[in-house]
Amino acid sequence: MPLAKSEYLSDTWKDGLFKNKVVFCTGGAGTICSAQVRALVHLGANACIIGRNVEKTEKAAQDIATARPGAKVIGIGAVDVRKLDSLKDAVDRCVKELGGIDYVIAGAAGNFLASINQLSANAFKSVMDIDVLGSYNTLKATLPYLVESANKHKVDSKSLKPSPLGTGGRIIFVSATIHYRTMPFQTHVSVAKAGVDALSHSVAIEFGPLGMTSNIIAPGPIASTEGVDRLVPADAMEGYVKTQPLGRFGSVRDIADATVYLFADTGSYVSGQTLVVDGASWRMSAGGAASGNLAYPDFLLSGDAVPNVKGQKSKL
Q1: Listed GO molecular functions (predicted)?
Q2: DSSP state of 2
Q3: Which end of the chain has the lower number of beta carbons within 10 A, N or C?
């Protein structure tokens, strides 16, 4: 159903900012990534979103398309980011139907709560494969089109004037802040997101000379998302909100605005960076899963397994 613009985009940006541009997004049916794509579509882009669940992905695409009359949004389900050929097929369809790819959001991820004692090698590997290998495969599959778009939209190095065609050749990796200070029950995610961050930095160095930019958006606790539902126990939610430096959780609009900033002319000289959108949350002492009935270190010392936590199985 159509959403009010205020729910996913601020009034800062001018309409038509991304006219005739195409964004390709893995994990595009998720709460955060769908808001990022919706904001870009509202501002003129067409989009292709990728997911594992066919019905959910196609339905999300139809919903995102309501952001702008005439918008083209393709939803491609049954795509496994761990398999390069699967992603290449989706990229080929995107390019065939929409004409190219100017922006990429690598947002597919897996998460669940588990102590190291509970965490099997296979569970650890599944998160590494989805987050790190999936991000790498997303890059590899879209790279030829990102380089092409970057070359077409280069900023004049002498006058510093933006290309009259707008921007292009930009990738954002959606990461997290968990690995900055670490968090109990999130070892697998911490290691995976550190790898994603390193990947983005390398892309910025190797493909910067071709005009590409590569950056990371690291969301903090964002309201009404699976991440918050999984990582903050219900009995600790109210107290956890009060510990936030700004006294609230973030919104998907905060992440979408950060995305527009990096993809628009405002981000033309921003590359190899991490844009943390968390209201200074990570600067506080560890919380989230380490609170409420799972309080640190008492729960770990008890030797008990993490009980009845929503989403214990990773979302492949």
Answers
A1: 2,4-dienoyl-CoA reductase (NADPH) activity
A2: -
A3: N
Q: Is 175 a catalytic residue?
A: yes
How far CA 285 is from CA of 31, 180, 198, in Å, comes to 26, 11, 24
Condensed to tens digits (0 to 9), the pLDDT of residues 77-117 reads 999 999 999 999 999 999 999 999 999 999 999 888 888 99
- Residue 215 backbone dihedrals phi, psi, to 5 degrees: -140, 170
> Could you report the per-residue pLDDT of 199-239, keeping only the tens digit for each?
999 999 999 999 999 999 999 999 888 777 766 767 777 77
Choice between 214 and 293, residue whose per-residue pLDDT is larger: 214
Q: Please report the pLDDT score of residue 131 as a whole number.
A: 97
CATH code, residues 5-287: 3.40.50.720
Q: Residue 194 is encoded by which pair of tokens? A: 């550190």
Cβ-contact 152, 163 below 8 angstroms: yes
Contact 238, 222 (CB under 8 A): no
Tokens 């699976």 sit on residue: 226
Active site includes 157? no
DSSP 94-114: HHHHHS--SEEEE--------
Catalytic residue among 193, 214, 271, 291: 193
More confident residue, 110 or 306: 110
Collapsing DSSP states into helix, strand and coil, what is residue 58?
helix
End-to-end CA distance of the chain: 26
List 175, 214, 251, 291, catalytic entry:
175
* Helix, strand, or coil (residue 173): strand
Instruction: Please check the confidence at residue 313 and state whether its pLDDT lies above 50.
Output: no
